[in-house]
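Hypothesis: this fold can be encoded by more than one sequence.
Test: take the structure tokens below, design a sequence, compare later.
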């Protein structure tokens, strides 16, 4: 009998509050998270605090992570954010910078030189590249298994891993560590996962299942700090996308607006947990080649990005995934599209938007733009004559 997949365990926990399912997830991934934390904070007790905080966040976000392609990749990223918060608080970042500054420029650097920067290097990769590295070298999966998780062919998985390794190599070179992709991949495979303390899995599961109700003040602070840092990182990515668009147009003005979360009647609950499939931030939408024009808050804009995903990336995915119905999917099933791309909407049913005024080329960044069923109905009615 095959062991249950991470998605199955997350669904069981989110739906039935199954302690057994969550404990299995912790036991499966605690070594990964603890090893990443220990590499960064270099203190056993703090590493356990970081590990606890990560799994508290997992318990809180289990419902929205059920459709995530690689839970291990998400855990590594969160472990980095929590650890970075610890390092910033105690001013340990200077320690890593000093290590990097005094490294020798040689072709073969040992694990002692690779380890201090590894988690920062992996965290700065895009989601697909990060998942490829974690699956291939942290979890020692075959290329076939990596391909299956990422939903691509074996050749595409190999190219993804190779490109990600090259990005890591360049990251190290920029910080004074001259090495090869072969050395980096070998070092990660051999040393990245270490056995955690014997009782850590049980204690982590017991506290995380309560979503932090029984956690120490330090652990709760770490969890909250990581959530804020992750939210800002996602928003900053979208801002950079918008900035790139506007620089190309010859201007350098970026406007950031914070939209309040307007709650109307609760959306229908369905296979996405608390999120209805039939919600949208827009009241109008039309296509012109690779340009998507949307109506938001009564004004028309060109859509540059949603939650840091560029419009071109979304269009390319939808054309491949949904074939002839790609326009209808984007217009009426945006929640499904984002979930299928590995970016499920949060239970607050909001998104971050990067919008461009086609007349002035001014970029507007909307933080927490509300998605409603009323908006989606407006799009559905307006597009009835044009979409199949």
């Amino acid at each position: 009998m095959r062991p249950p997949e991470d998605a199955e365990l997350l669904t069981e926990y989110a739906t039935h509050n199954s302690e057994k399912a969550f404990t299995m997830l912790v036991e499966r991934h605690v070594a990964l998270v603890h090893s990443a934390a220990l590499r960064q904070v270099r203190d056993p007790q703090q590493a356990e605090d970081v590990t606890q905080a990560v799994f508290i966040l997992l318990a809180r976000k289990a419902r929205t992570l059920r459709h995530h392609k690689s839970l291990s990749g998400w855990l590594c990223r969160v472990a980095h954010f929590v650890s970075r918060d610890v390092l910033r608080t105690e001013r340990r970042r200077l320690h890593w910078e000093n290590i990097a500054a005094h490294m020798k420029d040689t072709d073969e650097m040992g694990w002692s030189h690779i380890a201090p920067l590894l988690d920062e290097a992996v965290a700065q990769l895009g989601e697909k590249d990060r998942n490829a590295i974690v699956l291939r070298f942290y979890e020692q999966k075959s290329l076939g298994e990596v391909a299956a998780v990422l939903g691509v062919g074996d050749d595409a998985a190999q190219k993804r891993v190779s490109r990600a390794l090259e990005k890591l190599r360049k990251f190290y070179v920029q910080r004074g560590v001259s090495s090869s992709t072969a050395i980096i991949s070998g070092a990660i495979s051999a040393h990245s996962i270490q056995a955690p303390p014997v009782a850590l899995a049980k204690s982590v599961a017991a506290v995380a299942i309560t979503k932090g109700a029984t956690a120490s003040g330090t652990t709760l602070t770490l969890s909250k700090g990581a959530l804020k840092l992750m939210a800002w990182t996602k928003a900053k990515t979208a801002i950079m996308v918008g900035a790139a668009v506007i620089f190309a147009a010859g201007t350098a003005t970026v406007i950031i607006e914070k939209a309040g979360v307007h709650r109307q009647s609760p959306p229908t609950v369905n296979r996405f947990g608390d999120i209805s499939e039939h919600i949208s931030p827009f009241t109008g939408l039309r296509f012109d080649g690779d340009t998507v024009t949307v109506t938001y808050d009564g004004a028309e804009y060109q859509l540059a990005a949603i939650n840091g995903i560029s419009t071109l990336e979304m269009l390319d995915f939808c054309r491949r995934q949904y074939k002839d119905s790609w326009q209808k999917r984007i217009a009426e099933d945006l929640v499904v599209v984002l979930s299928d791309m590995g970016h499920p909407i949060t239970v607050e049913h909001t998104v971050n938007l990067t919008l461009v005024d086609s007349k002035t080329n001014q970029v507007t960044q909307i933080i927490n733009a509300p998605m409603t069923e009323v908006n989606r109905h407006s799009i559905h009615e307006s597009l009835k004559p044009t979409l199949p």
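Strands lie at 254-258, 284-288, 291-296, 299-306, 309-310, 350-356, 363-370. The radius of gyration is 22 Å.
Hypothesis status: open.
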